[in-house]
Design goal:
The complex is a heterodimer of chains A (123) and B (337). By secondary structure, chain A is mainly α. Chain A has three helices and no strands. The chains are: A mainly alpha (123), B mainly alpha (337).
Chain lengths: 123, 337
């Protein structure tokens, strides 16, 4: 019983770590992109609030697309996989890959948005 | 029987979908060119006045504060107040008045599509390669290929202008008055106990419903035909016939329900398209529904109205798809697994 509990704990921590790494990596890159985007925009444009708004909106666009893509993959992914198998289309598209890609995109978007907030506080 | 776990999973998935749509719409509106404050103040207004309008609308606050407040308001189903369309009126009130109009149109169009498409699809499959089949297929192909913005004016020209049988715009003749209770004109005129007003509303509704119905019918009949053709070749259908069951009973009792599963998917997905199609239909027939409201709101940079409308569309679309999933598992319990 204890061994089983320990193995479940290990599985859960591995499961969480893997997902955190996936989203966290994209979030970090997004954060950097958000800060740089805001600073660059502020330097190039006359109105710094425009730079902040547009960079933040771009990040929100990525987050929105990521969320919609992720939930779309969960909703329809198995069906699409079955359809590919049924049609023997030779596609290597899978629900898992799609979810991972969308989680990355969403993480990146959230990172950009956080980056803009951070840059705005610094400026 | 639908399991609670299945239903709960589907309902929980609505949260990221709606959050995603809300974020996406917010982003699109802030990336689009045009300043709502400038639009409201007027092109020649002094900068100080534009700034004052911006402050009044709360657009001078940092974008992330606006985003956070927007999300909080969405959770409370409060979409804010209209900037331009009905200045100061709560968006929820505007939607409450306009949404039933679109819903009535889309539901009637969809029902027309189902009522025509399913029998035609079954008939086409049962009488495969006959003249009926060819005619149905040509009709369906035409229905799919012809866009609403073309079929609408053509129907107006034929039935409204040339033959003069049906009215071409609006929802009811101006001579009739009725009390607006549900904002669905057919129900309201019925409730008001005025048969002449009901007939007038039905006549006004006929062309727009037909435009949506033809498009919907085309896809449904195509899908029903191919699905039915696949089912009637199954072994169990042959077995039922070999046991002496009549052809019609075999098709309707054993074939129809199984062939219906992919058709229901199409109907569910199509409902969203029909709501989008209602935007065009409403514009062509001058109907004051959510479609025309959305176009007006986009043209006027009325952020709260656009956000509210799109979120309402998204909510309805996801709920319809949830309904489709539930129907699926009712028709074939294996799908739930």
């Amino acid at each position: 019983m204890n061994a089983r509990n320990r193995s479940t704990d290990l599985d859960l921590s591995r499961w969480t770590r893997r997902r955190l790494r996936l989203v966290g990596g994209a979030l970090g890159v997004g954060l950097l992109a958000g800060v740089l985007g805001t600073l660059l925009g502020t330097a190039l444009l006359t109105d710094p609030s425009v730079a902040r708004t547009k960079t933040f909106a771009l990040g929100a666009l990525c987050l929105g697309l990521g969320l919609l893509g992720w939930s779309g993959s969960v909703f329809a992914g198995p069906g699409i996989e079955n359809m590919h198998r049924h049609l023997d289309s030779g596609s290597d598209w899978s629900e898992t890959d799609s979810r991972r890609a969308m989680a990355r995109l969403g993480g990146f978007g959230a990172g950009v948005m956080a980056g803009v907030v951070l840059a705005a506080q610094v400026i | 029987m639908i399991s609670r776990r299945f239903l709960l999973k589907r309902l929980l998935l609505l949260v990221p979908v709606l959050f995603g749509v809300a974020t996406f719409v917010f982003a699109m509106l802030h990336l689009a060119p045009g300043d709502p404050a400038r639009l409201i103040a007027g092109r020649r207004a002094p900068d100080a006045f534009v700034q004052q309008v911006r402050t009044e609308l709360g657009l001078n606050r940092p974008v992330y504060v606006q985003y956070g407040e927007f999300l909080l308001d969405v959770v409370r189903f409060d979409f804010g107040k209209s900037y331009q369309i009905q200045k100061g009126a709560p968006v929820s009130e505007i939607l409450e008045a306009r949404f039933p109009v679109t819903l009535e149109l889309a539901v009637l169009g969809q029902l027309t599509g189902i009522a025509l498409g399913i029998p035609l699809g079954v008939l086409s499959a049962v009488k495969q390669d006959s003249l009926t089949d060819h005619l149905t297929r040509i009709g369906a192909l035409t229905g799919i290929s012809v866009p609403i913005f073309w079929s609408g004016p053509i129907l107006i020209m034929v039935f409204g202008v040339m033959l003069g049988w049906l009215p071409t715009f609006g929802r009811i003749a101006t001579t009739y008055t009725y009390e607006s209770v549900t904002h669905m004109i057919l129900i309201d005129t019925l409730l008001s106990g005025n048969p002449a007003a009901f007939v007038s509303a039905a006549r006004h509704m006929l062309l727009p419903v037909l435009v949506i119905g033809i498009y919907s019918m085309a896809l449904i009949s195509r899908m029903m035909r191919s699905s039915m053709l696949e089912v009637i070749r199954q072994d169990y259908m042959r077995t039922a016939r070999a046991k002496g069951q009549g052809a019609n009973i075999t098709v309707m009792k054993h074939g129809f329900q199984n062939a219906l599963i992919p058709v229901i998917t199409v109907i569910g997905i199509q409902f969203g398209t029909l709501l989008g199609g209602a935007i065009l239909t409403e514009t062509v027939f001058s109907i004051n529904g959510v479609g025309t409201l959305l176009v007006e709101a986009i043209n006027n940079s009325d952020y709260p109205v656009v956000q509210g409308t799109v979120l309402l569309f998204a909510l309805l679309f996801t709920l319809v798809n949830l309904g489709v999933d539930v129907t699926y598992s009712y028709l074939d319990p294996r799908i739930e697994q």
